[in-house]
Design goal:
Order of helices and strands of chain A: HEHEHEHEHHHEHHEHHEHEH
Structural class of chain A: alpha/beta
Oligomer: homohexamer
Strand order of the largest sheet of chain A: 1-2-3-4-5-6-7-8
Number of helices of chain A: 13
Distance between the termini of chain A: 49 Å
Strand content of chain A: 15-25%
CATH superfamily of chain A: Phosphoenolpyruvate-binding domains
Chain lengths: 257, 257, 257, 257, 257, 257
């Protein structure tokens, strides 16, 4: 079942977050209990080559591949789809114009301006003819616009109305910096929570999906109840750190006892 | 003889199309009977590193290296030349402004705004002094603007008149999507052929080169007669697929007989 | 179904032969109509890293991954299995001692001396417990000893009787060099065909599998009738060369007509 | 001591210039007597992956990592900082708008619009809490705008006044092309020296740092006396060429004598 | 302080176990709370290139780099030292002859036969002159022979007496397979524990170090009390798996509550 | 002209020594004034992949590619030739048996036991038919046995008489360690010079080539007069270090003056 079908069916989905541009590391993450893996090209180390190669182990593991592009790199949004991503997350979509450019790169005409050439995506996913593929592509791949500044909040209605934008993705760390005018970074800042809830609500009302990064596991239940359906978490840095702490604690306790 | 010299001399040239970002694979393609190899960074998997490394086996094989950049990545047009490409193909040049920005990245002042730094290109190609190299570079490298939308067609005269644009490159798959408003993708769509012919004619009349992607070999004669002089074809996906079908057919026939 | 199960069931299987140490190129080959892909570390360019990475797209495509190791590199036989290969082909097994060392690396005790550590193979293939995996591994992975010299021919009975050797693999090019004392290389040399047939017969009689490299497709039927059941063919050099010849011929004919 | 602290303390610093996108080569350069290493993504071969990996040996050697981005790739300015660069050099900053966009990518709000996510930089450099890191980041990383055209010269005051721009970097080769309207490339062109001196002076007066590329060692003293404090020099092409000439000369003299 | 100095001082040390041949992944592991990182070339995916590159982030993090070589690959023992490893672990040292060959590769004459050429190790570690480095190298790098078969157990005294062998490393999984004649794999098999304890005792009595792989944290205290001083644990597969289970459990609990 | 032809013609040739496993770095070295480039797999960082890729820029630059293999890795001797090397240097050939095994891997039957499969070498070098290539290969590729221990000196006559050994290569650093029983490493140790001279003399008398590593340029004339015809020198570590010292000296002098 595709990512879009599962979201449409109302599933709550977890995506791991990969920042190590290495297909073997991605393979290990893809074998864990997440539903999807997001290859991060903005703050993570992923790049064109690692995305192209990293999607294969994700698909082999039966998981959904997503890609976050760098700020404004809409050329890469198209490429991520050409490589077989099911969704692309664009950071810092702060205006309707940003949303429009992002959608243009994500959707084939007449909806957008995406160029044809699924050299890798078609053999990785496709069945049927290339014409079938053309017809269904705009529906089966998802464009998530990140909402993480006051400007984005101000432009939210227009962003949600932009044809080709399939959902929003809340970036709580940047949002907290914006919310406090650079005073702090705190992904669970209480004072912004009501607004974060309203964003999900407005997205859902507009018929769009709502996703969010979950830095602190304890916030998960709350954001799900707000309407966020796709939860991102767990870069390799985080997973290895958690695993090492856990393992070393057990070993040290065994030795101390 | 340089690519530009051969095109000026009226040769019909074939360029293979490489989408595998690996210098050894490029080397094998470069050893086949094509005149040139285009490293594709838009729909293919090539990236900065693979272009930098892939040009070497192409030059060793005595072939011409070309690079297609991603949409709007004019920074990469300059870099492709810095790495030793003889021509750059820019997709989705849909306006005179697009053409102007592309030309600016491709040509040294006063024609354009390309920055100096042929660290790799000069030792790969160069003879004489760096000042000689500066003087001849604008002539010996080619800027091909892709014409593949209705907007590009509307702006064609202006694109052809843009100083620094050396030729056009027709993308028939995208053009067919545009031509049918997203209804189909068909690189040999009969209804667009007259227009495709006129584009070559207008380019030639403006003193510019005309290139095209040939998805179906049977169309080759027709596009050559239209005035297209540089024919692109044959990604690794295509070549390996053709080779495997051919080989397996022979093996199966031998076993069946 | 595993490779061993299909061979036991009497299927004639085709394996492509990959010499390009790049997972994307392997992926393309794996998407063609072969049943298996052999990653060649002897004359091909594969190495530890490319084998580890190249097995993933083969498994994703539902094909069987095989590895040919360099001469005498039995450490790599174990590693290929640890990485997820279903069979290993060892070149130049010229004596019973060679066969014994190869088998030792391929099989867990008490049959052999393989060391435990399926870090990659188990998550790539495994179901059930690691103890189950230990118990079934010796059966589900195959050791093919290459027979390609006069010494190997002389030692054939002993090689076939060596516990842990699951089959032989005939290398016809080297065999022709040996057969003619270095006078020529000819994979279909008529004078050696009777011997090649007898080798398959002796292998089958000993309950072992017989495999062979097919340089010329026309020989396929003949070797199958001799009892060779796994046929190797088609490196990327070969496939790309066949594909390019085919494509350029069609293009040139279109232009000439 | 950080790069900014050393520049503020008035030290004259030398940065090597790396164009080979390979961490082992960078490691060798980092072990020489330079204070810093600049990884060049404009004319050099560095890319996302090589910058991410190349910063580690620079830090291990106790040197300062700098990155030059391609023209207009401000997404990469943020990424270079996320990967641990202490300074970013942006080429072709030809207008106040260019400077503003560069600064926006380099500085966290409210000064700029940089997005939060120091996944690599924090463990590579950081001490204390992430909130401390947020507070000090805008001060401890430096934005150098390259001045290398007449347009940049005309806009210099505005560029220097742009909040978040920490210094200018003079590109003498491009400046000479601009100065002569494309007639020549000459990094020590006498006729532009007075202007080059005035640029340093204006930068210093505005409280900004002044850096320059030194193609000819003999010019070093002069530019230092002009006020340039960070001197770039010595790509691997240059260093290896100097080393080889020196070595071969000694060997040839020994043989001839 | 060097690894050998810390072991001589009686510290109990933990080494992580890296099987992902990627320097960025190694960097993350090196930033956790282990004292050392072992790059595994036997069952892990490490190879010449990844060892050469992976040692840098380990040294930057102030940790000790160790390498486990493939079975019988004593050429690689020397190379690991040339690349900067502080210790090498050789698997399947089953005889005095194996031990002698391993020691020969690890030690410079007259103790062994190691060839001179610390191109990478010297700048990575070295101070003083190359002659100093030659003199101290045999002492400052450690050769660990793996004891993991009945043959090794039988030969233990001879192995321990072999000049140049600095310690033993117990492989409990393989030892359990040997102990049960292939019946099971169980790193904490009770019936072999007395023997495992005696091995540490004999090693310590011979003045050699004792190391062991700890698959189950709960065994740590017991093996330390037996005299094992260097404890290996935690491949990336293990660490990521532990981290993901931990994280997903917290997230699921938050949602369920 | 091939390497063997030039040596036979009496030329004194210089080979650079590459230890950085990166084709771009090799390309830069190949563009300097050396006649050949040796890719070092023993103490340098080269490996299967970097040798396969590094030979291309060497051939493009019109230089001779050589490979030094790790100790005892005769499987790699064959592979280096398969990848296109013109000569292979084997370290630590300390006995006639070592020489025999090395020669077996280097030469096709009946002279040796090399296996057929020039997948890369033939398209990189070859003209004519594969049978021609088979016939000429044993002559056109060179096997150099390193003489660097007392054992090798004792076995020298036998090594020189071994069919298939084309020359010796003197390793002066290891030889000095052997000569002083591990007391020092000194490539120009006076007390061993007479022996080093006699080795060249005995090689020449046996009709074999003599090569040597030149650590100190000043020794070059002396070893040439001894009969050494192929002189190795200048790793990237050395070249970059020489270049950086030279450059920084000039810059510092300019500033100081």
């Amino acid at each position: 079942m595709s990512l879009v079908a599962r979201l449409d069916a109302g599933e709550t989905l977890f995506t791991a977050w990969s920042g190590v541009p290495d297909a073997l590391t991605v393979e290990i993450v893809a074998n864990q209990g997440f539903h999807a893996i997001t290859l991060d090209m903005q703050h993570g180390g992923h790049h064109e080559d690692s995305v192209l190669r990293g999607i294969v182990p994700i698909l082999k593991a039966g998981k959904h591949p997503l890609v976050r592009i760098p700020v404004g790199r809409f050329d890469m949004a198209s490429r991520a789809l050409d490589f077989g991503a099911e969704a692309v997350i664009a950071p810092m979509v702060n205006s309707v114009e940003d949303a429009r450019r992002f959608a243009a790169a994500m959707k084939y005409p007449p909806l957008g301006e995406r160029s044809w050439g699924p050299t890798y995506a078609f053999p990785r996913h496709g069945k049927g003819t290339q014409s079938d593929w053309l017809k269904e592509s705009n529906q089966r791949t998802l464009a998530f616009a990140m909402i993480e500044t006051r400007a984005a909040l101000d432009a939210l209605d227009g962003i949600l109305e932009t044809p080709g934008i399939d959902g929003i993705f809340l970036g709580p760390s940047d949002f907290s910096i914006a919310w406090t005018d650079g005073e702090t970074v705190d992904s669970t800042l209480e004072s912004m929570m009501e607004t974060i809830e309203s964003i999900a609500g407005r997205a859902r009302k507009a018929g769009k999906h709502a996703a969010i990064y979950v830095m602190e596991p304890a916030i998960a239940g709350r954001v799900v109840s707000m309407g966020y359906q796709l939860l991102a978490m767990g870069s390799e840095h985080k997973l290895i750190s958690l695993g090492a702490e856990n393992l070393l604690k057990s070993v040290r306790e065994s030795i101390a006892s």
